[in-house]
Amino acid sequence: MAKTLLLDQDAWDLVLDASGNIAVADAPYAAAQDVASAQRTLRNDCWYDTDRGIPYREMVLGQLPPQALFQHWLEQEALRVPLVKSASAVITSFADGAIGGVTNITLTTGQTITTTV
């Protein structure tokens, strides 16, 4: 099973467990959190793989790419996460530099999870 460092949902920062150690999240929550992190990654920001991430700087900031293209980017980033078998992004708001919506992901275990975009 996949594990990841647990992040505070509001601050998107590390959380400590009851013993004062960095908290860890297990699947299926780990996969959902990793999808949300992948979708927040800017292209070229991952030094180990500059092709990862959404091209916010190049094609989103100051522009308004087609909503279908943005949905595609979100889905592609979700599919890079281990244990994710399929992903379907649904954009609910897409204007004035604010993007809102959800991504429905299905894990290789068959479990379905919804993450916030």
**Number of extended strands:** 5
Strand and helix order: EEHHHEEE
Total helical elements: 3
Look at the helices and sheets and give the structural class. alpha+beta
CA radius of gyration? 15 Å
Task: Quickly list its features.
single chain, 117 residues, alpha+beta, two-stranded antiparallel ribbon, 26% helix
How would you explain this protein's 3D organization?
The protein has one domain (33-116). It is 26% helix and 28% strand. The protein has helices spanning 29-40, 56-60, 67-79, and strands at residues 3-5, 24-26, 84-95, 98-107, 112-116. The strands form 2 sheets. A 3-stranded antiparallel β-sheet has the order 3-4-5, covered by helices on one side. The protein has a two-stranded antiparallel ribbon with strand order 1-2. The chain is globular and about 45 Å long.
Topology:
Blueprint: E1 3-5, E2 24-26, H1 29-40, H2 56-60, H3 67-79, E3 84-95, E4 98-107, E5 112-116
Antiparallel strand pairs: 1-2, 3-4, 4-5
Helix pairs in contact: 1-3
Short structural summary:
This protein is an alpha+beta fold and 117 residues long.
